[in-house]
Write a structure and sequence with these properties.
about 190 residues; alpha+beta; 4-stranded antiparallel beta sheet; 7 helices; 4 strands; about 45% helix
């Protein structure tokens, strides 16, 4: 990925990052391309998810075995899985009409609702699985034009691999550390 725009770097590093970028996504200010906004939003999402996976789920589940993460976390008195935390955040952003949407999808979804639904999603997931690099394209959905970015979602902890490889509904059981397991699909409405 190319280095982040110097105008965006301080926002990502600062506490106002998500608020500022949400406003940027809604306004598409001059000097910021849709790609730069998408890349900055993804940097925040990826960082939050990686920190949760490595420092909470992986540590508690694999290293200290204090508490586990489970897709049935409420019933099991466990932690939500990293993918569930990501989905909950995406749902909250959608409820707030924040100026963009995002989701975690896969060519090999454990949960069928996380499969590609549009041609661009499928094309993007195939591209990131093959190259490990982000994929960008404009698409029209429901008569509205969107800037769509798909980012590779890689296995960053043993907990990711164990969950996906061992799940009863998994269509794929051979993931290794660093493998692309799916993609983050981020959409910004275009004016």
């Amino acid at each position: 990925m190319k280095p982040m725009n110097p105008l965006i770097r301080p926002l990502v590093a600062g506490g106002i990052a998500l608020a500022a970028l949400t406003a940027a996504a809604a306004e598409a200010p001059s000097g910021w391309s849709y790609k730069e906004i998408a890349d900055a939003l993804h940097a925040i999402m990826e960082s939050d998810r990686t920190v949760y996976t490595r420092n909470v789920v992986n540590r508690l589940q694999n290293e200290e075995k204090v508490i586990k993460a489970s897709e049935h976390w409420k019933d099991d008195k466990a932690l939500p899985l990293p993918a569930q935390m990501f989905r909950y955040g995406a749902e909250m952003v959608a409820e707030k009409n924040a100026g963009f949407t995002y989701s975690l999808l896969s060519l090999w979804p454990v949960n069928k609702q996380n499969a590609a639904k549009t041609a661009v999603e499928k094309e993007g997931l195939e591209a990131v699985a093959k190259s490990g690099q982000p994929y960008y394209k404009e698409e029209t959905l429901g008569g509205k034009k969107y800037y769509t970015a798909v980012y590779p979602d890689k296995a960053v902890a043993k907990a990711c691999i164990a969950c996906h490889n061992d799940h009863k509904d998994t269509p794929r059981r051979d993931f290794k550390m660093g493998d692309v397991m799916g993609g983050v699909v981020l959409r910004i409405p275009m004016k």
